[in-house]
Design brief:
The protein is α/β, with parallel strands linked by helices. About 35% of the residues lie in helices and about 30% in strands.
């Protein structure tokens, strides 16, 4: 079974609808499934990912053979295009890095504990990655402990060097969800 992991419910909306996923009645309140897929909405940040993903994998430990993480990220590298999807080759947080995919077309992502918004914060990270998010490293860390491979696709929602409000990003989440699902449909 493939497990999708999303941070926000609105990012997952199109996947839930198009894959005809039904809400599961288990202690985690944001799990959806059909005969082929599980989908978990963790909430924002590493601690949410670690606790909810660990719990779900424990429940379905013998059924999950891969994890697909889809979501939005901020652009550190100005060559990345806003509203485009990119597969992630590796993710780092601090000194620890996980390799997810070794294709030449992918990018490297940095996970942080807080949103990056501004030139000085982004400049500190640009040497280590091309995009920044708040969850992927934790997804990879939990998956590694269970020996489950992870693939990730991030849609670049904004430029991390510019200050943008969460409300501005949230206005476009339905569009982001549709773009991510189209990428999944075409490439997976």
């Amino acid at each position: 079974m493939t497990l999708f992991v999303f941070a926000h419910p609105m990012e997952a909306e199109t996947f839930i609808s198009k894959l005809d996923l039904k809400k599961e009645n288990i202690s985690l309140n944001s799990v959806y499934s059909n005969s082929e897929y599980l989908l978990l909405v963790t909430g924002e940040g590493s601690s949410n990912v670690i606790s909810k993903l660990t719990n779900l994998i424990t429940i379905y430990s013998n059924s999950i053979f891969q994890i697909l993480n889809f979501g939005i990220a901020g652009r550190l590298d100005p060559r990345l295009k806003i509203n485009e999807c990119y597969e992630i080759n590796s993710v780092s947080m601090g000194a620890k890095e996980y390799t997810l995919d070794e294709s030449e077309s992918g990018i490297n992502c940095i996970t942080t504990n807080v949103p990056v918004s501004g030139e000085s914060e982004a400049q500190q990270l640009i040497d280590n990655g091309q995009a920044v998010d708040m969850e992927l490293w934790s997804v990879a860390d939990v998956a590694a402990s269970f020996r489950i491979p992870v693939r990730s696709v991030k849609l670049i929602s904004d430029d991390a060097r510019e200050t943008i409000s969460l409300n501005e990003i949230m206005k476009n989440v339905k569009f982001y969800s549709e773009r991510l699902f189209n990428y999944f449909s075409t490439h997976f």
